[in-house]
Amino acid sequence: MEKKLNSHWKTHFRQRLIEWYERKFRDLPWRGTSSPYEIWISEIMLQQTQVKKVIPYYKRFLETFPTVHDLANGDLSQVLKVWEGMGYYARAGNLHKAAKIVVTKHRGVFPSDPEKVGNLPGIGPYTAAAILSIAFGQNLPALDGNVIRVLSRLFAIDLNPKSAQGKSRLLSIAQELLQPGQAGTFNQAMMELGAMVCAPKSPKCGECPLAKKCRAKETNTITSYPIKTPKKERPHYNIAVGIIWRGDEILIARRPEKGLLGGLWEFPGGKLENGETLQQAVAREIREELDVRVSVQELLTVIKHQYTHLKITLHAFHCQYLSGVPKAIGCTEWRWVKREELDAFAFPTANRKILDQLLQE
What pLDDT digit, counting tens, does each position of 301-338 carry? Predict the structure, then answer.
């Protein structure tokens, strides 16, 4: 570790940070609790989702599933419905799986052993450290994106934080800076500093309690850190789906639980293949997925949507059911439902936009 991190330097660093945090921290619903379950739910929700969006979902989730037993005993469809609109649905599925493990293997008590916590679905090194430090007071540094950004700028770390060497360097620095006995508060203070002051763009250096210790500020290179990996161009796909009518009922299908958007309901369809028209793609996909024949009619709407690794343009067509008894070939189940019943099912965001237009017709 660098010579500059002597005992006096670290003591002053911690004092400045904690004093700032105690004055400026946001009053968030998961703050002030030591419940491992509630902290766990908040940490999973905060992965890749902004705080202001998480708050209402967090409250609603705990109202629906106030204990780990309630979550374990709940149906996945119900979990996904409460989660609907927050995205990254694998997080909800992993929460449900992990809750079952906590109930069956740990008698309903969230484990305090790092290895056991790390083995739960959806919990990586950062989430495990955050839960164990905040809920159990364990002296573990939690390196989320905010903390990585703060440390990268403070020490002008010329390593990609996603590389093995970068991760090791950051973890080593964070462990040395950590205040033993106050790890939970220290970790939350670092996260809050990154979220509120040391922002990715337009950081508020004038409000930072650590500005005098920041090497990136000293060299006017703040926005150069952390070192970024060049972004890959995301592939784009045209998707064609059908709103299949049989009288006043619509046919919907539930996606396989493994894979993208697992367990959610959708209007059947899929990717456009070479040489196909959108109408031909709809009819083919519905036949392959459900063994049903349809007549493709007018276009309802076109939706553009982006995921972390791909982009889609979703073309939704009204379709008239012709023949065939639906079979769960490319899905886990199917249902005929009335238009007014659709809102009870959990749909992906892009399909939800189609549903909203459908309900307005």
Answer: 999 998 888 899 999 999 999 999 999 999 999 999 99
Q: What are phi and psi of 39, to 5 degrees?
A: -65, -40
Residue 43 is a catalytic residue: yes
What's the pTM value of the predicted model, to 2 decimals? 0.85
Of 19, 22, 38, 43, catalytic = 43
Distance CA 313, CA 48 (A): 23
Residue 354 near residue 301 (C-beta atoms within 8 A): yes
Residue-wise pLDDT for 191-247, tens only, equals 999 999 999 999 999 999 999 989 999 999 999 999 988 888 889 999 999 999 999
Q: Which amino acid is at 197?
A: V
User: In 3D, which of 40, 25, 30 has the Cα closest to residue 132?
Assistant: 40
Of the chain, the end-to-end C-alpha distance in Å amounts to 65
What's the CA gap between 159 and 64, in Å, rounded?
A: 43
